[in-house]
Amino acid sequence: MSSGNKNLSARRMANLVGKFKNKTKLEFIEQFMDSNNYNINKNVTGVTETNFCGFESDRNAAHTAKTAGMHNNRLMVWNIPELAKSTFKRLVAMHTKLQPGQFTINKVRQKNSEWRYKIATQNNRLSQLKIKKLAKKLGAKIRYDKHKSLRGPQRTVNKKQALGQTKFKCMSYNLIGIKNVKNQLEYMLNSYQPILLTLQETMLTEKSSRCRLQGYTCIEVKHKIKKGGRGLLTVVRNTADLTIFEYLSNSYWMATKVSDTLEINNKVEMMVINVHTPSSLTKKKQVTEHITSFSRNYKLKHPDHIILSWVTST
């Protein structure tokens, strides 16, 4: 036996451990599953192609997806219609490590009047682990696109309480870190049940998952160390007949569009501006000028819309 073949299994294990130390657990498992070490039994019919870990290989998974009527280069994303297209594209590129030119984003309106996103990749099929990671970070439901004949029944939209039947209760808080007071915040939401809530200084970074509050739809601006800002959050109660969309976001302020349909079928449009002014006088002046210019131009284009703003400063 040559010296090169001694302790072959030990050297292989050391190589795997070295890869595990340099990568995160998720990336290590993904690379381990995507390796080309397969144990294929071609003589036995009905046996799927698997690797030595027992997982179905990517090549066989792609074949299964095609036979099942799925498009393995197109993904459908639900439960985040409030995000702007630019924000969603930036989050996909951040959490999947895809370049902006390697995928396209489309926002589609369904027959039940709900919105969904569609991700189309060119030659970079996302693995199941990356899809699960992206769904967890976005708080969304993601699956491969299917043929129309294989899709399930349409989801029914739950009827919400019209805004004219209840009081429009608004609240605003400067948290100085949402992670430390999340239990108190949920208790406050259950006790007072505000329809609209704006929060400042959440201190959530860009790499963290989207903030979710039970019973509310959230739109946020993350804390950016280089560009400034301490994080903003605007939420709307799900039981109210309100739809919220991200209109414009900045490091220090964000604008969200909130619409409501009353019983008399008069649509009420509101622009909610959530602001946290910086301590620097120069930046504070710039932020004030930007908000003033934005509000003036928006009011000229939409004179019937209501503008609500909450401003806090350090």
Properties at a glance:
alpha+beta; 7 helices; 28% helix; Alpha-Beta Plaits; 14 strands; four-stranded antiparallel β-sheet; Endo/exonu/phosph_ase_sf; four-stranded mixed β-sheet; Deoxyribonuclease I, Chain A; Endonuclease/exonuclease/phosphatase domain-containing protein; 2 domains; globular; 314 residues
Distance N terminus to C terminus?
Answer: 73 Å
Specify the overall morphology: globular
What string, H for helix and E for strand, traces the elements in order? Answer: HHEEHEHEEHEEHEEEEEEHE
| CATH architecture label name of the largest domain | 4-Layer Sandwich
At the fold tier of CATH, the topology name of the largest domain is Deoxyribonuclease I, Chain A
Indicate the mean pLDDT. Answer: 77
Reported for the largest beta sheet, the result is:
4 strands, antiparallel
Total count of helical runs of at least 4 residues = 7
Unreliable runs, pLDDT <50, ≥5 residues?
36-57
For the record, the count of structural domains works out to 2
Radius of gyration: 25 Å
Q: What is the number of beta strands?
A: 14
CATH class of the largest domain: Alpha Beta
Structural class by SSE content: alpha+beta
Work out the helicity level.
Answer: 25-40%
Strand order of the largest sheet: 4-5-3-6
Beta-strand residue fraction: 25-35%
What is the CATH homology-level superfamily of the largest domain? Endonuclease/exonuclease/phosphatase
